[in-house]
C-alpha cells in the first residue's frame, strides 16, 4: 500500500472500534505523556541497560587480561558516538513520522513493504525479549540479595509481570507517573556514584568482590580487531530502547513530535553521560570482573564504600531492571496498532480503550512474555544472547531508510545528514553481524529462524484481509438494497415466557416464522415431545411446530441440516435463526446454564449462511406474575 505522507491511513472498523483516532488536545490529552513522563515511561529499557552494557564490554575485553581492559573507555566512546548518531537520526524519524512506528514506518515509505515487515518483526522480537530479560534481571538482583527466594524466581517473575501489565492497562500516563520515582532514584544514584568516584584516588571498598574468583584472562599483551568488535557489539546492548520514543510518538501530548524529540535528546544525553562515566570509573579503579558480582556493584562499592549508599544503588538497579519492561508496553502496542491498520495484524490490535490504551497489544505482550519466562525458568543468561540482535536489525534498516529519505527529499544539508545515517547504518550493521555470529550457537539461531516466520505471518494476514476486501469491495458504491422474503426459524425445547418472547420477536422480524424442536427416540424423550406437541396445540400461537428427529443426542446438527434444506428449497428467502437464551442476573448463575444457545449458534454458523440472532431474556429481580392463560414452564 503506497503512502504519500508519513501518516498511515486508518482502517474503518465499524461498530467494533472502541474509540476513533484522536487528533490530540482536549480531554484525551489527560491520558497522554509529557516529555518528563515520556522519559520515565519509555526510557527504562535504555536507562537500565547501563547495568549490563559496560559489564558486557568488560567481560569480553577481560579475555585479553588487564591490558585488554584498558580499551574499555575507547570502546565505550565508540558506542557513545553511535548513540549520538542514533539519537540524531531518531529525532528526524520523529519529525518525519509523527504517527509512530520507528524503523517500520521509515522502511515502509522508503525501502518497500517487505523490508518494513522485517523491521517490524525485529522490533516485535526485541520488545518481547526486553520484557523477559528486564524482569528476569530484576528478579535476579533480588534473589542475589535474598538467596532463599532463588527457587521461587519463576513465580516472582510472573508476579512482577502481572504488576507491570496491570499498571499499563490503566493507561500509559498512569504507568509513567508510577515509574517516575524509581527512574529518578536510579539515574540520581548512578550520577552521584560517578561524581563521587571521580574525586576518589582509589576504591573505598572492595568488600563485594572479596572471595570471588576473577574472570580476568592471563598472559595477553595484544588486543585484536575481532576482540574489539566483539566488545563493541556486546556493549551495544546498552543501546536497546533508544528507538522506543520514536515508536510511541502518538502517546505524547500535543505537540507530540516536539515533546518526543525533547524526550529522545534527554534520553541520549543521560545514557551517554552514564555510560562514559561508568567506563571512566572502571579504568580509574582498575576494576576486574569477578564471578557472581556485577560490575555496577563493584563500582558502587569503590565509590561509596560498603554502606547504605551501596545498597541504595543495588536496590534502585533491581527495581529499574524489573520495571524496564515498561518500555515494551509503551512501544509495542503502538507498533502493533500501526501494523493492524496496514492489515498485517488482526484489526483488533488497532482498538483503543477509554484510557488511550491498546489493551489487546498489552495483553498479548504479557502472555508471550509469560511463556518466555516459564520456558527459560526465569534465567537471564538464557535470554540475553537473543536480546540485541533484533534491535540492531531495526537500527540498520531505519538508518538505511533515512539515507533514502534524505536523498529523495533533499532538504538543506541533506548530504551531511545522509552521510551521518549511512555511517550509523554501517556501525549497526556490523554489530548485528558480529552479535549474530558470536551468539549463534547460544540461541541466536532462534532469532534468525523467528524473523522470517513472523514476516511470513504478516504476509498471510495481509493476504487474508486482501481477499476479504475483494469480496466486500469497501469504498465502492454497492447495488441499492432490496427487500427479500424473510423466514425466521426459532429452535424451542418447551413452553415458557422465553418461548413467547422469542416468537414475538421472530414475527416482528420476518414474514414467515417456523418453530423447530429436536426429538430423540428414547422413551422419556418421546413423552416430552408428545407433551410439547399437546401444549402447543392448546396454546395455538399461530406458528407451525416442526419436529426434527435425531437418532443421537445431537442438537446443533439437526437444526443446521434443516436450515440448509430450507436454503435449498427457498433460495429467494432471507433465512434467520433466532436462538432464545436466558441470562441470569449474577455471573456465577450463568455457569448453571446448559449452553444450548452456543451449541446451536456454532452449528448454524459453521454449516449455513443464515443470519444468527441470539435473543437474551434477562432475569432480573423477582418474576412478574403470569398472565392469564400463559403456560407454566415444564421442569
Polypeptide structure, described:
The protein is mainly α. It is about 60% helix and about 5% strand. The chain has 25 helices and 5 strands. It has helices at about 35-40, 45-50, 55-60, 65-70, 70-95, 105-110, 115-145, 155-170, 170-200, 225-235, 245, 255-285, 295-305, 310-325, 325-340, 360-375, 380-385, 385-410, 415-440, 445-470, 495-510, 525-540, 555-570, 585-590, 595-605, and strands at about 485-490, 510-520, 545-550, 575-585, 610-620. α22 (about 525-540) links the parallel β2 (about 510-520) and β3. The longest helix has about 35 residues, at about 115-145. The model is unreliable at about 1-25 and about 625-635 (pLDDT under 50).
What's the alpha carbon Rg, rounded to whole Å? Answer: 32 Å
Helix content: 55-70%
Task: Name the average pLDDT.
Answer: 78
Q: What is the general shape?
A: elongated
- Distance N to C terminus: 60 Å
Number of strands: 5
Q: Give the ordered list of helices and strands.
A: HHHHHHHHHHHHHHHHHHHHEHEHEHEHHE
Low-confidence stretches: 1-25, 624-635
> Which class best fits the helix and strand makeup?
mainly alpha
Percent of residues in β-strands: 5-15%
Largest sheet: 5 strands, parallel
Instruction: Name the strands of the widest sheet in spatial order.
Output: 3-2-1-4-5
How many DSSP H or I helices? 25
Please write out the topology.
Blueprint: H1 35-42, H2 44-48, H3 53-61, H4 65-69, H5 72-96, H6 103-110, H7 113-145, H8 153-169, H9 172-198, H10 225-235, H11 244-247, H12 256-284, H13 295-304, H14 308-323, H15 326-341, H16 359-376, H17 380-383, H18 387-409, H19 414-439, H20 444-472, E1 486-491, H21 497-509, E2 512-519, H22 523-539, E3 544-549, H23 556-569, E4 574-583, H24 587-590, H25 596-607, E5 611-618
Parallel strand pairs: 1-2, 1-4, 2-3, 4-5
Helix pairs in contact: 1-9, 1-12, 3-10, 5-10, 5-12, 5-19, 6-7, 6-18, 7-8, 7-14, 7-15, 7-16, 7-18, 7-20, 8-9, 8-16, 9-12, 9-13, 9-14, 10-19, 13-14, 15-16, 18-19, 23-25
Amino acid at each position: 500500500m503506497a503512502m504519500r505522507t508519513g501518516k498511515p491511513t486508518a482502517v474503518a472498523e465499524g461498530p467494533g472500534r472502541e474509540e476513533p483516532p484522536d487528533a490530540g488536545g482536549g480531554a484525551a490529552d489527560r491520558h497522554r505523556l509529557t516529555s518528563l513522563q515520556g522519559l520515565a515511561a519509555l526510557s527504562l529499557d535504555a536507562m537500565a541497560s547501563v547495568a549490563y552494557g559496560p559489564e558486557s564490554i568488560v567481560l569480553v575485553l577481560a579475555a585479553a587480561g588487564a591490558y585488554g581492559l584498558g580499551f574499555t573507555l575507547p570502546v565505550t566512546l565508540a558506542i557513545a558516538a553511535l548513540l549520538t548518531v542514533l539519537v540524531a537520526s531518531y529525532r528526524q524519524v520523529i519529525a518525519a513520522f509523527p504517527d509512530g512506528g520507528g524503523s517500520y514506518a521509515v522502511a515502509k515509505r522508503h525501502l518497500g513493504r517487505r523490508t518494513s515487515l522485517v523491521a517490524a518483526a525485529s522490533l516485535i522480537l526485541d520488545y518481547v525479549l526486553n520484557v523477559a530479560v528486564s524482569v528476569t534481571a530484576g528478579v535476579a538482583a533480588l534473589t542475589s540479595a535474598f538467596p532463599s527466594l532463588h527457587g521461587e524466581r519463576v513465580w516472582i517473575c510472573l508476579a512482577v509481570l502481572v504488576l507491570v501489565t496491570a499498571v499499563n492497562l490503566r493507561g500509559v500516563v498512569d504507568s509513567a507517573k508510577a515509574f517516575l520515582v524509581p527512574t529518578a532514584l536510579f539515574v540520581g544514584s548512578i550520577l552521584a556514584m560517578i561524581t563521587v568516584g571521580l574525586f576518589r584516588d582509589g576504591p573505598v571498598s572492595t568488600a563485594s568482590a572479596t572471595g570471588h574468583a576473577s574472570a580476568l584472562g592471563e598472559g595477553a599483551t595484544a588486543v585484536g580487531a575481532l576482540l574489539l568488535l566483539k566488545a563493541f557489539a556486546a556493549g551495544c546492548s546498552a543501546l536497546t530502547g533508544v528507538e522506543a520514543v520514536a515508536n510511541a510518538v502518538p502517546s505524547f501530548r500535543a505537540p507530540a513530535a516536539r515533546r518526543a524529540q525533547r524526550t529522545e535528546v534527554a534520553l541520549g544525553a543521560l545514557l551517554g553521560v552514564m555510560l562514559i562515566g561508568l567506563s571512566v570509573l572502571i579504568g580509574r579503579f582498575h576494576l576486574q570482573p569477578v564471578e557472581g558480582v556485577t560490575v555496577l556493584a563493584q563500582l558502587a562499592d569503590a565509590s561509596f564504600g560498603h554502606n547504605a549508599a551501596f545498597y541504595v544503588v543495588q536496590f534502585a538497579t533491581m527495581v529499574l531492571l524489573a520495571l524496564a519492561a515498561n518500555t515494551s508496553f509503551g512501544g509495542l502496542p503502538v507498533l502493533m496498532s500501526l501494523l493492524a491498520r496496514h492489515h498485517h495484524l488482526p484489526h483488533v490490535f488497532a482498538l483503543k480503550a477509554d484510557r488511550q490504551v491498546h489493551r489487546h497489544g498489552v495483553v498479548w505482550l504479557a502472555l508471550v512474555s509469560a511463556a518466555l519466562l516459564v520456558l527459560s525458568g526465569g534465567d537471564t543468561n538464557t535470554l540475553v544472547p537473543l536480546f540485541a540482535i533484533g534491535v540492531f536489525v531495526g537500527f540498520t534498516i531505519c538508518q538505511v531508510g533515512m539515507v533514502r529519505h534524505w536523498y529523495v527529499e533533499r532538504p538543506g544539508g541533506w548530504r551531511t545528514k545522509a552521510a551521518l545515517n549511512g555511517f550509523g547504518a554501517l556501525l549497526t550493521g556490523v554489530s548485528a553481524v558480529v552479535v549474530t555470529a558470536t551468539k549463534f550457537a547460544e540461541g541466536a539461531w532462534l532469532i534468525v529462524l523467528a524473523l522470517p516466520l513472523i514476516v511470513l505471518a504478516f504476509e498471510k494476514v495481509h493476504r487474508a484481509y486482501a481477499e476479504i476486501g475483494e469480496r466486500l469491495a469497501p469504498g465502492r458504491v454497492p447495488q441499492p438494497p432490496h427487500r427479500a422474503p424473510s423466514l425466521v426459524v426459532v429452535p424451542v425445547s418447551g413452553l415458557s415466557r422465553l418461548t413467547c418472547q422469542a416468537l414475538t420477536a421472530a414475527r416482528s422480524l420476518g414474514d414467515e416464522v417456523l418453530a423447530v424442536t429436536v426429538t430423540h427416540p428414547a422413551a422419556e424423550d418421546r413423552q416430552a415431545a408428545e407433551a410439547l406437541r399437546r401444549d402447543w396445540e392448546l396454546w395455538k400461537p399461530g406458528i407451525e411446530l416442526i419436529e426434527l428427529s435425531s437418532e443421537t443426542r445431537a442438537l446443533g446438527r439437526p437444526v443446521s441440516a434443516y436450515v440448509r434444506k430450507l436454503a435449498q428449497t427457498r433460495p429467494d428467502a432471507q433465512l434467520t435463526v433466532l436462538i432464545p437464551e436466558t441470562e441470569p442476573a449474577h455471573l456465577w448463575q450463568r455457569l448453571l446454564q446448559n449452553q444450548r444457545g452456543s451449541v446451536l449458534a456454532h452449528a448454524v454458523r459453521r454449516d449455513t449462511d443464515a443470519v444468527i440472532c441470539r435473543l437474551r431474556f434477562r432475569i432480573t429481580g423477582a418474576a412478574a406474575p403470569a398472565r392469564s392463560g400463559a403456560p407454566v414452564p415444564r421442569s
